[in-house]
């Protein structure tokens, strides 16, 4: 299926130098449409998970719907990207190595971040400007793989989605009363740990490796990609630190929150008074 006239696609390739984009642009659009359909139909699932869904504000309903979409992307992206860690073409050349499987995986995630950028811009008053920056930066980052450039780092960047799995569970269930407190605590701990490990520690390590590969191979790739990746990595790492501080703040409040007294404790307290 051709969504765009060939002349339009050729112009995009001319401007961006994404020479592999014409072969995968339909995959990107198909993925974006799929995520929009999930977004539209997600309330049916949310009414089961959150019976009070219809009484929530627009912002909260919007947040829950995007959470369902995000969870689908994270699960599928992690699954289909794992074999790329062992792709010889990418291992042999970190910068310009090309893999058809990598571009298929990239089409799926690029479609997600295209959808994410559009939905965040349309709902900036509900989601915030940080979500817009994140969506746009990720969309451009994944699109640039069709230059081709840095396909080796695709499965490594998608490791970030490990923390997203636990974050989404937190968003859906943490404010409910029927989800056991013990499971909430375990999920919150796993979220904080995976976020720190994959986004802060491994994220910083991957960024340094990207910087090194870009500098060493600066004569093999366009200057704008080098500038973009340096700038983009700084923005995303700042956002990750910003979000991790918020995670620690919430975790601290939960740990310091007094536990509700049981009936036995209330009874004992009344007898002692």
TrEMBL record:
Keywords: Membrane, Transmembrane, Transmembrane helix. It is a multi-pass membrane protein. GO terms for cellular component: endoplasmic reticulum; membrane. It is found in: Membrane. This is TLC domain-containing protein. One of its GO terms (biological process) is lipid homeostasis. Residues 59-256 form the TLC domain. Signal peptide: none annotated. Pfam families: TRAM_LAG1_CLN8. The chain crosses the membrane at residues 24-41, 62-82, 102-122, 129-146, 190-211, 223-244.
């Amino acid at each position: 299926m051709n969504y765009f006239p060939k002349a339009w696609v050729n112009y995009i390739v001319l401007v961006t130098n994404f020479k592999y984009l014409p072969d995968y642009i339909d995959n990107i659009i198909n993925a974006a449409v799929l995520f929009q359909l999930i977004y539209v139909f997600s309330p049916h699932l949310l009414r089961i998970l959150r019976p009070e869904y219809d009484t929530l504000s627009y912002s909260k309903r919007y947040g829950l719907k995007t959470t369902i979409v995000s969870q689908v992307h994270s699960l599928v992206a992690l699954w289909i990207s794992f074999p790329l860690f062992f792709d010889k073409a990418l291992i042999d050349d970190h910068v310009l190595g090309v893999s058809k499987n990598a571009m298929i995986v990239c089409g799926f995630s690029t479609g997600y971040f295209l959808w994410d950028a559009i939905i965040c811009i349309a709902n900036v008053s509900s989601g915030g400007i940080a979500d817009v920056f994140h969506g746009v930066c990720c969309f451009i980052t994944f699109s640039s793989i069709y230059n081709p450039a840095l396909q080796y780092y695709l499965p490594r960047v998608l490791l970030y989605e490990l923390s997203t799995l636990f974050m989404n569970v937190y968003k859906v269930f943490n404010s409910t009363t029927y989800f056991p407190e013990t499971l909430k605590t375990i999920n919150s701990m796993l979220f904080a740990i995976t976020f720190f490990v994959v986004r802060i520690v491994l994220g910083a390590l991957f960024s340094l490796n990207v910087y090194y590969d870009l500098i060493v191979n600066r004569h093999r790739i366009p200057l704008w990609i080098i500038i973009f990746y340096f700038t983009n990595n700084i923005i995303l790492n700042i956002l990750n630190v910003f979000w991790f501080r918020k995670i620690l703040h919430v975790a601290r409040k939960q740990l310091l929150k007094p536990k509700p007294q049981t009936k036995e404790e209330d009874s004992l307290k009344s007898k002692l008074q």
